[in-house]
Amino acid sequence: MRSLTHGLDGDVVSAASIGRLLVYAGFGMVLVGSALLADSGLSAGGLPGDFVYSRGRATFYLPIATSMLISVLLTVLFKVIVRWRR
């Protein structure tokens, strides 16, 4: 394997590990996209704390609560993946 760069902790990161990470990220995006397509109830402005401002034909979405929920879920998911890989 050919090393590309050094990781944050000084370890050498190989092209194969970066490729694996990209494949897993792609699968994750496919799963999230499939869930969004399957459930039309998941939309911006669906949680308390999500702001929707409509005036005339213009609508502005500020999904603060949804963004925080997605952030927490992704943090937990990545922590589980990191612990599982060690």
List keywords for this structure.
single chain; 86 residues; alpha+beta; two-stranded antiparallel ribbon; 2 helices; 4 strands; elongated
Q: How many beta-strand elements?
A: 4
Sheet with the most strands?
2 strands, antiparallel
Which ranges are low-confidence, i.e. pLDDT below 50, for 5 or more consecutive residues?
none
**Oligomeric state of this protein:** single chain
Q: If you had to describe this structure to a student in words, what would you say it looks like?
A:
The protein has 86 residues and is an alpha+beta fold. It folds into two domains: 1-41; 43-86. It contains two helices and four strands; from the N terminus they run E-E-H-E-E-H. It has helices at 15-38, 64-85; strands spanning 3-6, 12-14, 50-55, 58-63. The strands form two sheets. A two-stranded antiparallel sheet has the order 1-2. Strands 3-4 form a two-stranded antiparallel ribbon. A hairpin with a 5-residue loop joins strand 1 (3-6) and strand 2 (12-14). The protein is elongated, with a radius of gyration of 18 Å. The mean pLDDT is 78.
